[in-house]
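Weekly puzzle thread! Below is a chain. First person to post its structure in C-alpha cell form gets bragging rights.
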Amino acid sequence: MIIDTHAHIGTILNFDMTVEQIIYSMDKYGVDFSLFSDIEAVENDHQGNPVPPSFQKPQNTVLRESIDQVKKYPDKLGILIWMKYRQEVPDSEFIELIDNNRELIYGIKLHPFHSRIAPDNERLNPIYDIARRYNFPIVSHTGGCEEARSIHLYNAAKANPDLNFVMVHMDLGTDNSEALDLLGKLPNLYGDTTWVPVSTTLEAVKRWGSEKMLFGTDNPIDGKDTLLFNMAGQRSLYQEYFNEFKEMVSQDDYDNIMYKNAVKLFNIKL
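Winning reply:
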C-alpha cells in the first residue's frame, strides 16, 4: 500500500494541476490514497511578491472548491486545507465548512514560502487553535526563504506539543542537514520525502527511526506522470522510492514510511 501525503490541485502562477491528473497517476503507479491541498490559496509568487488581488480567491472559496473536488473520489482523496494566513483569519463560515465536511478533511497546510510568514509567528495561533479543535496535523512547506526554514516549524512544534507537524521537503534546495537534526528533537515533528533524496530518508531512518518520515511527492506538479519522470524527462525520484528503496530498508520500515505513519498521523480509514 502507498499513501501520498503531499499532492496538489489548482491553477495559478505557473501551476495547472487537477484532481483528474492525481487519479490518473494513482491508478497508473499504484498509489492507494492521496492528501491534496489547493494551490489557489497562494498569497505570494515565487519571488515573494503579493499575487495581484484579481488572481486571489478567498480562503472559504478555495476550501469550498476543494470539498467539491474531493467528493468525486472520497475513497481515494482527502483534503489538507491550504491556509491564507497573511491576508485572512478563519471565520465562522470556514468553521462551518469544516464541521459539515469533517470526514473529507485530514489536516492543515501551511506554505510560508508563498505567504512569507514563518510558522512560529503568533499570527498563526488561531490556525493552531483550529488544528487543536479538530485534531488536525500541520503540514508545512520548508525551504526557499527565511520564513520557510525548518527551524521555524520546529519552534512552532515546540510551542504546541499537543499538535503534530510535518516538515515537507526537509528544507527544499538544501542538503537537508538542519531538518535532519531537528527531526529527532521533538516527538511531534515529522519529515516527508517530497523531493528528498533517498539517502536523506535512509539517514533519517538510521538516526531517528522509520516512524518519523512520511511519503509525499508534490504530484502532479510535473504533469500527470510526475511519479514516472520529471520535467526534464529524467526518471522521477519517486521511482527510486517505489523500487530500489524497498530493498534498502526492512519491510516494516518501508511500510511505515509509505503508508502506516500516514494512517496513524492523519487518522486515515481505508
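Puzzle host: Confirmed. Bonus trivia for everyone else. Strands lie at 3-12, 15-17, 33-38, 77-82, 105-110, 138-141, 165-168, 189-192, 213-214.
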